[in-house]
Amino acid sequence: MYEVLIVGAGISGMRLAQLLQQRGTHYCLIDARFRLGGRIVSQSMAEGVQPESGHHRYDLGPSWVWPNQPRINQLARQLGIKLYPQYDQGTLVYQDQFGSIDTTINAAPMSGSLRVQGGQQSIIDRLSTKLEAERVWLNHTVRSITQAEAGVSVKCATSCGTKTILAQRIVLAVPPRLVAKSISFFPKLKPEQTQVMGDIPTWMAGQSKFTAVYSKPFWRDHGLSGDGVSRIGPLSEIHDASPENESRGALFGFFGWPVQQRQVPEKELIEQAITQLRQMFGPEAAHPLQVSLQDWAADPLTATAADVEQKVQPQCGSLTELDHLWQGRIMFSSAETAKGFSGLVEGALEAAEKVFNDLIVYGVNH
Ligand SMILES: Cc1cc2nc3c(=O)[nH]c(=O)nc-3n(C[C@H](O)[C@H](O)[C@H](O)COP(=O)(O)OP(=O)(O)OC[C@H]3O[C@@H](n4cnc5c(N)ncnc54)[C@H](O)[C@@H]3O)c2cc1C
To answer: Ligand 1 in contact with 278 (CB < 6 A)?
Structure first.
């Protein structure tokens, strides 16, 4: 029997695992996916495309951290990962609802934010080297949690069949709305407890992100920062995503179109996004070396139907009603459960630290 079973190997679950490992706790970390990182994932250049100098990857999930976020800045330092400023020199390109383009606007909405060298996945990769491999199991989807005499009994689906894991305590490092939707509890939770979880929106879960990589950041030569705002779309908000050493150029954008409007073949969406980048940033934008499209609304391990319907990025909620659930046998740790920087990577780390401290109070590993 494990002292602590952590469900969800996004950055929150991984950070908690690191803390428990340093303390010598008998823990296990599982995730439904075949990879670590959850919403943090970055893409390398495809095989066959000449590699750039330095190994940069392009973020399909989060891109930014901020200097006022102590935990992620410290973690990056500890892991030997460099953060570099978001490019903010030059003007923003604005496309109005009639398609007219204005390239004279002096605004840099993401100025002051930082990007992660090598992509945010570098954090996940380095963090994973701090965990004992035999304690980390992928391809384990939790279906149910049953109260047991000395803890919990957890049923998981794996590609080899069903598996039961016993633990004294379980930490759900999974967005609460996803827990409410996909995990059964025995005895059943009260309806209001399930409701509380279901009411907490999962940060950015309904978003879709498009990235185009070029041989160089050509827009900079024209005095453009790479920032863009469009009232037509498909991309509504665009930013420079180039590596710091300019060995390549990259633009990324969030789709402004709601999920229903995005229900066209991916190839078509990509063509429309490239056409829009050409209109806004000039003819060189028509020839990317590589593109990627990540629609998080279509990812069942992030988004639920409720997230997909959300039009505006919502505020996260509070789970205090679920503190000490089953006498503290069930705990929650995800970006959405943090009090500060809720929904963000910093929040995910804050949540992990809070649970770690609570586990110590509960006497784990004494
Ligand atoms: C497009 C996009 C852009 C973003 N931009 C930023 C940004 O610029 N800056 C920022 O700070 N934040 C940003 N975020 C938010 C950031 O990604 C999250 O705050 C952070 O990654 C959440 O980490 P987490 O560990 O809490 O959750 P997750 O990363 O979601 O991890 C949860 C894990 O649980 C697993 N799981 C789910 N259900 C089960 C189950 N039943 N059994 C087993 N495992 C399960 C999932 O596979 C997943 O790996 C962005 C997010 C997105 C999607």
So the answer is: no
